[in-house]
């Protein structure tokens, strides 16, 4: 149980290739981190949910900064944020290395940073929309059958009581 609780805000390998700081209170951020955690080599990354007040951040990163932008601490200890942080994560995950290579071309990180800035401005609205859509999709396909003895129906499959 303690391991499960710990995973909520911190997953740390012995020698992380990078430490990923993310806002676990944001449903979009949680979904993206969940995607990264399912990737091959994800175990080489340390994931830190900065929405947890007891999460370790390091001296050069305060919680307010960490909650506002995506940050990654590289293996050499340097801290990057925004587009550069995404590229650093992608470098570590074999199925995402194409994205890291694509963004290493001149001007691409600047373009990604601009797009990320636009996303950050819209993030509160997108997070609420994502939460509503996620909640609705969980309930989609569930309806009462109205037939005696049939508890409910999900996508055409009946559950009997």
- Strand line-up across the major sheet: 1-3-2-4-5
Number of domains: 1
Percent of residues in helices: 40-55%
Alpha-beta classification? alpha+beta
Strand content: 15-25%
Mean pLDDT: 81
Order of helices and strands: HEEHEHEEHHHEEE
Low-pLDDT stretches = 1-9, 141-161
Principal-axis shape: globular
Terminus-to-terminus distance: 32 Å
How many strand units? 8
Largest sheet: 5 strands, mixed
Number of helices: 6
The radius of gyration is 20 Å
Describe what this molecule looks like in 3D.
This protein is an alpha+beta fold and 161 residues long. It has one domain. The chain is 45% helix and 19% strand. It has six helices and eight strands, in the order H-E-E-H-E-H-E-E-H-H-H-E-E-E. The protein has a five-stranded mixed sheet. The protein has a three-stranded antiparallel sheet with strand order 6-7-8, with no helix packed on it. Strand 7 and strand 8 (157-160) form a beta hairpin. The chain is globular.
Summary of the model, kept short:
With 161 residues, this protein is an alpha+beta fold. 45% of the residues lie in helices and 19% in strands.
């Amino acid at each position: 149980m303690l391991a499960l609780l710990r995973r909520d805000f911190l997953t740390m390998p012995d020698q992380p290739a990078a430490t990923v700081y993310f806002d676990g209170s944001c449903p979009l951020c949680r979904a993206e981190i969940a995607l990264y955690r399912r990737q091959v080599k994800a175990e080489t990354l340390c994931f830190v949910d900065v929405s947890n007040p007891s999460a370790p951040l390091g001296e050069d990163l305060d919680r307010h900064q960490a909650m506002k932008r995506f940050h990654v601490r590289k293996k050499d200890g340097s801290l990057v944020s925004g587009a550069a942080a995404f590229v650093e994560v992608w470098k570590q995950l074999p199925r995402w290395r194409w994205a890291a290579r694509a963004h290493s071309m001149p001007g691409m990180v600047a373009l990604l940073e601009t797009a990320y800035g636009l996303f950050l401005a819209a993030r509160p609205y997108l997070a609420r929309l994502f939460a509503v859509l996620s909640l609705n999709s969980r309930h989609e396909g569930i309806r009462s059958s109205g037939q005696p003895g049939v508890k409910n129906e999900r996508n055409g499959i009946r559950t009997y009581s």
